[in-house]
Specification:
By secondary structure, this protein is mainly beta. Helices cover 12% and strands 35% of the residues.
């Protein structure tokens, strides 16, 4: 049965251990017939990307580790000539470094940008899932083994079924059927701080109601006057903020193409 990766974004601290471990395993090491050495610069077969949402002072950051998706419908396989790219029985996609020499189109076929072209070696290269280690008894690829928070998991698809349930894959519209699953990728957020401009004090416990497409989210400001609506889908929202003794403040047509920090929101006292 095919192996899969499961990456829990909520557990990732952005330590970059997986990226460094990949470099340590593949730079300067020739693992033919699975891979020639990875260049020290220019290629990241395991790449940690930082995502910053919102604006100061309401900012949230998360990290996503990206590797070859070892797709079930891998477009790199038909793009290759002479069987230079193939799928192993365990589901890992391998670029044969001998047969793939000069086949630049293999790199261009990947919709995820996970295949690089090594100009010095005249060779397309990518993550192998550390197939050379697995063949010699290792249970995990180096990236997974190096993760201190268990944000990265690797194993038989059936064994990880509980984790893949409800998980997502990147760019499913490609039809490539990735075998790398992601959990807890944060959605967008809307946040702000509610205050009384006359007293120059924050307002704790102000009611915040967010609506979109017939759905309603509710929260209240905390002891700092802050409120957050998190994990929102992309869409158009209306926000109403009110508190006892104050006029309601309404924000219409809030678009969550990106996360929104509404900043300081002044409520006027009722007459």
């Amino acid at each position: 049965m095919a192996k899969v990766f499961v990456i829990d974004v909520a557990r990732c601290t952005g330590c970059y251990n997986c990226q460094l471990a990949c470099k340590d395993e593949h730079c300067g090491n020739d693992w033919t017939p699975y891979a020639k050495p990875q260049p020290e610069t220019g290629q990241f077969w395991c790449r940690v990307e930082e995502y910053v949402r919102g604006a100061i002072p309401k900012v949230k950051i998360h990290y996503i580790s990206k590797i070859c998706n070892h797709c079930a419908n891998a477009p790199c396989i038909p793009a290759a000539k002479n069987g230079a790219v193939y799928r192993r029985d365990d589901g890992l996609i391998i670029i044969d470094p001998e047969k793939a020499a000069g086949q630049r189109q293999i790199a261009g076929s990947c919709p995820y940008g996970a295949v690089y072209f090594n100009e010095a070696l005249n060779l397309p290269q990518k993550c192998t899932g550390c197939a050379h280690l697995l063949d010699h008894g290792a249970k995990l690829p180096r990236c997974v083994d190096a993760c201190p928070t268990d944000a990265m998991r690797f194993g038989e698809e059936a064994e990880l079924a509980e984790l893949t349930a409800g998980a997502v894959v990147l760019r499913p519209e490609t039809g490539a059927a990735p075998q790398v699953y992601y959990r807890n990728i944060p959605g967008m957020f809307i946040g702000g701080t509610v205050y009384d401009p006359v007293r120059e004090e924050i307002i704790e416990g102000a009611s915040c109601r967010l609506q979109s497409g017939g759905k309603t989210w509710r929260t209240a400001t905390d002891e700092f006057g802050d409120f957050w609506f998190t994990d929102l889908p992309v869409g158009v929202f209306e926000l109403a903020v009110d508190a006892k003794g104050y006029r309601t403040r309404v924000f219409a047509a809030l678009k969550t193409d990106e996360s929104l920090n509404l900043g300081d929101i002044a409520l006027d006292a009722c007459d």
